Fold:
Amino acid sequence: MTAALAGLLGDPHARTVLAATATLGASCGVVGTLLVLRRRALLGDAAGHATLPGIVGAGALSLSLGGTGREPWVLVAGAALGALAGIAAVHWIRRATRLPADAAMAIALGSLFGLGTAMLSALQQVEGGHGAGLESLVTGDAATLVRSDLHVAAAVATASVALTAAFRHDLRALAFDEDFSRSVGRPAGRLDALVSALAVANIVAGMRAVGLVLSVALLVIPAAAARPWCRTMGAMTALAAVLGAAGAVAGTVASAAIEDAPTGPFVVLACAAILAASLVAAPRARGAGPGATA
Amino acid sequence: MTAGDPAVAVAIDSLAVAYGGRTVLRDATLRIRAGAMTAVVGPNGAGKSTLLRAVMGMLPFTGSVRVLGGPIDACRARVAYVPQRAAVDWDFPITVRQVAEMGAHARLGWFGLRLGRARREALEALADVGLADLAARPIGELSGGQQQRAFMARALAQRADLVLLDEPFASIDATTEHDLLALLSGLRHRGTTVVVVHHDLETVRERFDDAVLVRGTVIAHGAARDVMTAAWLARTYGDAPHSGKATA
Structure:
């Protein structure tokens, strides 16, 4: 892999790709820590899968208006709308059915991804191959990243870090002790909306690199790998960012070694390997504290 | 005492709370004296926690609840609420100091944080509860009694006028219970109103000014020595098993 990496770094395009994936990985590590500690990981998954109908719908609209069906801003807008619709669907299902959160998320995730896949098939049927460009968004293809993708990744990462830092006290209080947070009048709904918005922004920014199906893994796995090593949320956020960047870069390099391989699965496997190593070498078992079982 | 009386910290009129189709509290009317230490007593499922959560405006209810002379949303920073220990994720990556700091932060906002004031006040509060040495430890590494002390430090750092504690002494050691009761008495002497959901009927009689007996509604309320009688307790607990030491 060293030779491959050296080769990659000599190439300006490869440098852009690696910088973008590293930035995305770090940003996802930061936001993933919020999702994990707030126990909202599956909400990120629902949002990720819900981007597909948004993307396909936006592509179809663009085609019908004489566009190419692949304009980046159109697809990004569609993905963001789809993700937000997915989160809205989760809330609506919970209110309408009184089902627990995990069931509501599973229903929204499956239904919207099924809808997106069906729409993609229909689009391919109608447009004869136009849908194929959208398919790479499902599992990701980092080789298609260009300079503007790096800029988007940098902007999303900056916003993620800045907002997480600015609201760290409120986010920590809400995740640790929601009753206390509400009792002192902190706006739980708006803080959760902030976390959801950051998750959507990272999923959308990362869909070309790792794909929308596996985006939740890049959010959650680095945070999970960082967890046993950290005594504070701040430390966990920083370590998850480093591990996310490492996993994203390692996965991208590995996928480049295989012709036409999608990036997403390799990034997820690299993150999973990091998680496995972390758990094997962890300094303490989670929940080993004497008060944890009380 | 009327609802607007400054001698009243919490004024509850015709409070009713229902969830999932079950009425937990109905027609509860109560005045909690400002500057007094009041115990909320009753069998399991009587609605004691619900009463506190209604005061905090944390669940829907009918009737009227006025806190420190107005609606709870007008005075949240002046009210410290300590939830049951079971409501908290004890495996969370947070240090003891950061837990206490939440209380100072609730009162000071961002300005206090920038000046390092929240941190300083958190450390002072931890010293008051005897946890100064453990400030840098993760909360999950503490014993149950130490965790309850950390929660008490958070309430102290909030410097509230009204402190509500939901079963703070459940499954903690006798030393911690004794120390925390002493801290609460100290707060009361400085004018703070203290309300505690409590199970040990004997300490209620010895250490609290007032008692509220709750079972689906307010059964009785008044000075602890007047209310904690065999007759009232029998009406409150009925044939429910006593969870306190007293054999009323």
Observations:
- Residues 53 and 59 of chain B are 6 Å apart (CA to CA).
- Residues 241-248 of chain B have pLDDT under 50 and may be disordered.
- Chain B has two domains: 1-75+164-248, 86-160.
